[in-house]
Amino acid sequence: MMETILALDGIKKDFGEGDILKEISLQVYKGEFITLLGPSGCGKTTTLRVIAGLEEPTAGRVSLMGKDVTDLPPDKRSVNTVFQNYALFPHMNVEKNIGYGLRLRGVKRADIKKKVDDMLEMLQLPGYQKRMPSQLSGGQRQRVAIARAIVLEPCVLLLDEPLGALDLQLRRQMQEELKKLQKHLGMTFVYITHDQEEALNMSDRIAVMREGRIEQLGTPEDIYERPATVFTAGFIGQTNLIACAVLDTAAVQICGVRVPACADGFSAGEQAVLSLRTERVRYAPALQGGLTGIVRERHYAGGTRRTVIRLSSGQDILAVSQSEGSDDAREGDCVAIHWKPDHAALVRGN
Amino acid sequence: MKKRDARKDYILMAPMALWAIVFVGLSMVYIIAVSFLKSNNAMGFTYQVTGENYAKLLNPTYLRILLSSLSQALCATVCCLAVGYPFGYLMARTKKKTRSVLMILLMAPFWTNALIRIYGWRILLMADGPINLVLTKLGWIQEPLKMLYQEGTVIFGLVYALIPFMILPSYTAAEKLDRSLIDASRDLGARPWQSFITIILPLTTSGILAGCLLVFIPAIGLFFINDLLGGGKLINVGNLIKDVQKTRDLPLMAALGVVLLAVVGLLLYVYQKLGGKSSDLNVF
């Protein structure tokens, strides 16, 4: 049984112009890396600010290590935040920035110095003590912001799109470093991003958020392979969403053709949407029956090839395949489309 | 990119520079020169170099006036700071709409001459003025309050006239302050007052310094507030210069002016030493 370190129970937040958070309930386990993933405006940052105590929820409770902290101010919570724009204090050098929280706690000067030095060592910034934030690069500021928060050894570290301002290459590198750091410290991370690839790469669990609610909560594999809603299916990865009718628990009908699919929990005759990942679509020259379509476009994209196939319903299906295995489909060819039944997820339309 | 032609810049600056040289520079040189000449009641001064004008200023009466006008200005500055800084800070925190309304309210008095506005206060505060009238009618007081010709009233007048010069730089500094820095400090364990001391105050010091300077300097010399609200009981250097004018002792007046100039120069020097920028003094 995993130990719950942070629990959100029915959190609502209303800024007076409609609900930003409609109902957020979430259990975060000790030592896990959990990501709140969603488009901008879905309430991720507000959720984080509620956890930090920077925003008071309109309703609901926040508890940390079993204690209700809803009414505690931010300085009384063992939670620290890495802000989106880093929020380094511009009038303090690196040492002062990292030591800020320790100084407030009345830690002895010599101890602070030692901790700050260790932190800079760990984050590969040795000798940067006296630099001012304005003299640092984006990646360095990022590290200082992380150091400033983790030096206080919080129960939970909150990270608000910490890599958003970095360029792609540095971002990949920092993703790895952050993940390593989290494992090394054994610290609980609540991470915010709108980048689904980042979320899939780094997280133990992902909470997909939409319009102030958690749409789906699960492991990256759950979210990717078994999306629960059309929104999750469409937001994560590249997917084909195909309208279909449920025939029985093992098949659906698409364009009048019976196609095998796992439809547990659906009733016959129900309208649903089949989420089919673009890289899971296979096609072959149409010989007999099955779901067929006409090849409309072919694009060579280096490692992969993108093929657009139009179904008889007029919907385009995108198939992404490895470009090494050459196939001789050409524009205008009629092809049969197939996939392994467990590679497609059936979801209810909204 | 084409390199800027420095000579062109000089040509463009020339009219402004000329204006400054003629109307500020030359008159200042003239005043400084006159302050070292011997006074002559009939002619104003004679061409005879002397330091006696400055020696006269060492007279305890003059020193006391100089000191009292400095303390008066200091008092007004502290009051302005106490009211104006929080006002400017909170104003920067309000919504955009509220902010522009407040800004207009703040600017509106400038459309009327300060002398006239102070005259208005004089009428309001008089023994048989509207304030006393209303309070008596309401039965809250038996005797009219003696509000005019008090030291406090003069300070009030100075604060009233000069407070926009404290609010505006405070507001500008507070507006530039990144809100997330306050959040970060709270998040890292700072209580509200600790956040104020360690983050807000140091990052708005430029506004405080500029505001203090902009209030203190005019407060030393604003003579008409002492005249109208203080009834001449209190005098500052500005009043003194005006009074000496009656004796037609031009060199003495000049020397007083030079002393005032030196005080202001010293303040500007201290301001720059404390890290103040001249651009922060541009509030409008």
Which descriptors apply to this entry?
heterodimer; A: alpha+beta; Rossmann fold; OB fold (Dihydrolipoamide Acetyltransferase, E2P); 2 domains; five-stranded antiparallel β-sheet; 20 strands; B: 284 residues; mainly alpha; MetI-like fold; 4% strand
What would you note in describing this structure?
The complex is a heterodimer of chains A (350) and B (284). Chain A is an alpha+beta fold. Chain A contains eight helices and 20 strands. Chain A is elongated. The two termini of chain A are 35 Å apart. Chain A folds into two domains: 4-225, P-loop containing nucleotide triphosphate hydrolases (Rossmann fold); 238-347, Beta Barrel (OB fold (Dihydrolipoamide Acetyltransferase, E2P)). By secondary structure, chain B is mostly helical. Chain B has a single domain (60-281), classed as Orthogonal Bundle (MetI-like fold), CATH 1.10.3720. In chain B, a hairpin with a 3-residue loop joins β1 and β2. Chain B is globular. The interface between A and B is medium-sized, with 24 and 17 residues.
Strand adjacency order, main sheet of chain B = 1-2
Low-confidence stretches of chain B: none
What fraction strand of chain B? under 5%
Calculate the terminal CA-CA distance of chain B, rounded to whole Å: 33 Å
The most extensive interface, with participating residues per chain, is:
A-B, 24 and 17 residues
Question: What do we call the CATH homologous superfamily of chain B?
Answer: MetI-like
Count of helical stretches of chain B? 13
Order of helices and strands of chain A: EEEHEEEHHHEHEHEEHHEEEEEEEEEE
What CATH architecture of chain B would you give? Orthogonal Bundle
Radius of gyration over C-alpha positions of chain A, nearest whole angstrom: 24 Å
Termini of chain A, distance in Å?
A: 35 Å
Could you say which overall geometry of chain A the principal axes of the C-alpha atoms support?
Answer: elongated
Number of domains of chain A: 2
